[in-house]
Amino acid sequence: MVDRQRVVIVGGGFTGLYAGKKLEKLLPASTAELVIVSPTDHLTYSPLLPDVTASVIEPRHVAVSLRQALPRHKLVIGHTTSVDPEAKTITISKSERGIVGEGTQVLSYDKLLLAPGAVTRRFPIPGVSESARGVKTITEAAFVRDHLLSQLDEADSLPDDPRFDAERAERMTVVAVGAGYTGTEIVAQTHRWLSRVADRWSNIDVRDVKWLLIDVAPAVLPELGPRLGQYALSALKGRGIDVRLGVSVANVEGNVINLTDGTPVPSRTLIWGAGIMANPLMGTLGLPLDRGRLVVDAKFRVAGADDVWAAGDAAAVPDLAKPKPADGPQPITPPTAQHAQRQGTQAGKNIAASFGIGQAADYVHKDLGLVADLGGGTAVAKPLGIEMTGLPAKIVARGYHLYALPAMSNRIRVLTDWALHAILPPQAVALNQTRPEDALITPAQNTDIYPKAAEKPKVG
Fold first, then answer.
1. Which of 180-184, 186-190, 311-315, 438-442 shows the lowest per-residue confidence on average (mean pLDDT)?
2. Structure confidence at residue 2 (pLDDT)
3. Element spanning 51, H or E
4. What is the second-level CATH architecture of the domain 128-273+369-442?
5. For the packed helices 337-353 and 14-26, what is the interaxial angle rounded to 10 degrees?
6. What is the rounded CA–CA span in Å between residue 138 and residue 16?
7. Contact call for residues 284 and 452 (beta carbons, < 8 A)
8. Residues 6+ apart with CB under 8 A from 420
9. Which CATH superfamily is domain 5-120+277-366 in?
10. pTM exceeding 0.70
C-alpha cells in the first residue's frame, strides 16, 4: 500500500481556502493528507472590512471558519517563515491569539501550495510605522472604529477653554492615505456613519470633524475609470471630505502629519490604505520575483522548486486574459479577491492532476468587474464593463459580496446586519478590545517575523 502524500497549503485566505475545497472534492482521503497553515483559524472577507469600521457589520460575521469550511484539513495555527524546497519542509512560527511566540515547528510536505497573500504596503516614511493604522485585518478594522469613537469622546470631554482648542482639533481630524478601494470606502463609510450618530456627543459637532483623503495618484479609484472615479470624487467632496491628489505623507512628527506639499496637518488619526504588497515570505525564498511576487507559470508552478505551486496575491500569475504587448512581458493578474478565489480553485485542480486525477490547465479568467461601496445609497460598480452609479451600483456591490462570501452562514449574518442597519439606529459603541500598540501595522500583520534572505532574490 502506497503511503498517503501530504499536501500543505500555506495561507488561509481566499486562495488557500478555495484550493483546499477543491482538493477535498477531488482527492480521496486514502490518497492525500491535507494540511493548511494559517495565522488564524478563519478567512477574513477583507472587501467588507470598511463595513466593519463603519459599524455596519459585526467583525465575526466577515470571519469564515477554516475548520468548518475545510473539515478534512488539519489546521496548523502559525506563520510560515521559511521554506526549504530541497528538504521539502516549511518552518512555522507558532502563534497564540494572533501573537507570534518563540516556538517553531518544522513540517514536511510532498506537495506545497504557497498562498500567504499580501500585507499593507508601506514606505520608509519617518513616523508612519509608529502612528499609521492599517485596515487589512479584522483587528485593525475594529480598532479604527473604536479609535474614531474614542477620539471624539475625548474631544467632547475637553473643557470649553481656548487652551484645549489645539488638542480638540487634533482629535477631530482624520487623515487617510490611499484613494483606492480601501481608503475611499473607509473614509466614505465612516464619515456617513459618524454623521448618523452625531447625538452621541453634547459638546462637539461631528460636522466639524475634518476629513482628509490623500493619494499620490492623480485620480480616485483609478481602476474603475475616469467617469466612475469622478463620480466618487464628487460624492466625497459633496459630503465635505477634503480630497487631495498628487500628495502623500512626508513624515509624521508627534501629532502632526506633514504632507509632501508642505502642509502640516495636526491629527491623532492616520489611516493607511495605500495599497498592498506580497507577503514578505516570498522574499526569503531566493527565487525569482516580479515586484515582490513569486514568479510562476500559468499553471502556478514555481520554477526551481519541485512539487511547489504558488497563487494569489503573493504570486505573479500570468494574466492570459489580456493580450501580450509586442514589446513587453505578459501582464500579471492584479491582486484582487476575485482572482485569488479563482486561482485557488484552479490551483487545487492542478495539484490534484499531479496525483493523476484530471488534467492541469492554465489559469485564464476575465475580471467580472469591480465595485466600491461609498455608504448609504451611493456606490460605483463596473460589472462586465458596464458602468453603474448610485442605488443600482449599490445593489450590484452587495449582491456580489453575498455571492463571493464562501460560507452560507456568513452570508445570512451579513445580510441580517445590512437589514438591521437599514431599519435601526446605527450603533456607536467603542469596545476597545485591542491595545493601540497591537493595532499598528507591523504587529497587527506580523510583517517583522520573516528572516532575511540568504542572498538577494533574483528579479524575474
1. 438-442
2. 57
3. helix 49-53
4. 3-Layer(bba) Sandwich (3.50)
5. 30
6. 18
7. yes
8. none
9. FAD/NAD(P)-binding domain (3.50.50.60)
10. yes
